[in-house]
Amino acid sequence: MKYVVVLGDGMADYKIPALGDKTTLQASKKPTVDALAKKSEVGLCKTVPDGMKPGSDVANMSVLGFNPKEFYSGRSPLEAVSIGIQLKDTDVTLRCNLVTLSDEENYEDKRMLDYSSGEISTEDARVLIEYLKEYVDDAELTLYPGISYRHCLVVDKGVTGTSLTPPHDISDKCVKDYLPSGVLGEKYLALMKKSYELLKNHPLNQKRIAEGKNPANSMWLWGEGTKPALADFEKKFGLKGGVISAVDLVKGIGILANMQQIDVPNITGNWDTDFLGKAKAAAKALKDGLDFVYIHMEGPDECGHHGDIERKIYSIEQISEVVVKTLIAEFSDMGEPFTMLICPDHPTPIAIKTHTSDPVPYLIYRSDEEQGCGATAYDEDNAKATGIYIPDGYKLMLRMLKKV
To answer: Is pLDDT at 248 greater than 90 in this prediction?
Structure first.
């Protein structure tokens, strides 16, 4: 038996008036996945435990079978591990976004125009981060470049407890009520203000503005955490597993769980990723000896954050008609039974442009045990109508493996 998880990050949604009161899942043309729903278990699963924030870190950890209440130590450490930072037990890490803020004179009066600086390229971002390092790095602080707008700040002998806000939660809002506060709030805010003064007139940002692109004119610090430790995936579940993702935090979870990192050229953390390349790479890894592959696709989430209905629907359709359809064909060629779990990690509704803790619709298809539960399609309403509900998200993996 081979196992594959097809994870459409942020795929679930609320009903959208512009779509005739349908969700993006309901409005998408996804015949392959909808056909599977008729012969699968379909239900709802709560991936974000009560009291925890609905981040992709917590939610993906749940779907991969790890209880966030037991293993979660913050978002940024997962990303730090992915980009190769060797963390000490005494380090505190923070996610550092390069963002676009509006140009009001006082920092507190600025608005969050773009949490990703127009999906800034890794090459442009590295120029700016290396420039900031000259002014930020010291005996206590070290800034590390990552991918696109996602970077990392490490604090030596740091402490946690600062109140920090994810920038994608405050799109278009004034930042005044969301600035760092608490233990090291003043220190982090001073860094952010300093970064704005350094970046606003940087030649690269002036070039970006001239080209009609959003300037990356400020650091935004959030997602603090400490060195994490996860259980070994193979020891926990008895399966040799691998991860395909363009997103550092998901790759970091895989690395910490000793799962194989499956590289796919030209993939992005957005709607324009190589969906076919991911599907083909997953199939090859399973043919070459892995028992389990986790395919993570960020496109629906990014489109949700940007309020982009059209591209969110496109991403969902690609997941169905490219990824899932290709996987089914590859498994048929292998002649081996397989189990497939399809789900989001959390909803990212178009209407609010950020994550929620609502239960997500899931689908578990077993090629050797086709059996429907009354669902006629894969979407939020069909999942709710079956009455199947998993209150502890980390148990979804056990259900997929038939261990509960």
So the answer is: no
